[in-house]
Amino acid sequence: MSHFAELLDPRIAIAEAPLTGEPPDLLADEALSVAAAVPRRRLEFAMGRDCARRAMVVLGHAKAPLPRGQDRMPIWPDDLVGSITHTDAWAAAAVARRDEGFVAIGIDLEPADELAPDLWETVCTPAEQATLAAVLGVTQGVAAHIVFGMKEAAFKCQFPISRTMLEFADLAIDVDVERRTFTATYQRAVPQFEVHDRLFGRFAISAGHIAAAVVVTSKAPR
């Protein structure tokens, strides 16, 4: 089962796995990042890295370490871009080659359940929430969780470009439900992005999960 295969360009390699069993082996510099972590966190971290390395192999790339940077993001080999995500039950990674024109990738996976009501106002505007609830026929809480996943995917995609940690209010979400696409529009300028520049993504709701993916290519419009 793949949550992301239909959301991403076929040149992007995807690997996914359930979060069960013993953690896969980590390389030395990766293991240092979770040396003091609880077992569950070590499993999440290790499974995400294992998915990323399996995706590298699909691309014909040698397996490589993915240490965690000071910003807590994976440090990818110079010739690759990628993104890792997980829920309590599932892990996934998407990896692509820069020489194929890929600049950045952001993927996010969330359980298709209600986002805590005390987060709604922080994560999304009433209009974003109401629009999704109306067109998808879901509750307000699930609609808020969908917006959360879309913005998380956009945050992760744009960070390697802007090196800026955004707030939820810094992006506005518009959705084309029929095409299962969305745009995330900047509400403030950050390095390399101006107000009203847009990131383009796709989403799906299936198998109890919300999947969102955003990709920037060298030819991407804004």
What topology emerges from the helices and strands here?
Elements (H helix, E strand, L loop, with lengths): L12 E6 L9 H4 L7 H20 L21 E7 L3 E8 L4 E10 L5 H7 L2 H11 L3 H23 L8 E6 L4 E6 L11 E9 L2 E9 L5
Antiparallel strand pairs: 1-3, 2-3, 4-8, 5-6, 6-7, 7-8
Task: Outline the structure in words.
- With 222 residues, this protein is an alpha+beta fold.
- It has 2 domains: 88 residues, Alpha-Beta Complex (Ribosomal Protein L22, Chain A); 110 residues, 4'-phosphopantetheinyl transferase domain (Ribosomal Protein L22, Chain A), CATH 3.90.470.
- 29% of the residues lie in helices and 27% in strands.
- The strands form 2 sheets. A 5-stranded antiparallel beta sheet has the order 4-8-7-6-5. The protein has a 3-stranded antiparallel beta sheet with strand order 1-3-2, with helices on one face.
- The longest helix is centred in the C-terminal third of the chain and has 23 residues.
- The chain starts with 12 loop residues before the first strand and ends in a 5-residue tail after the last strand.
- The model has no long low-confidence stretch (mean pLDDT 94).
**CATH top level label of the largest domain:** Alpha Beta
Q: Treating each run of at least 4 consecutive H or I residues as one helix, how many helices?
A: 5
Mean pLDDT: 94
CATH evolutionary superfamily of the largest domain: 4'-phosphopantetheinyl transferase domain
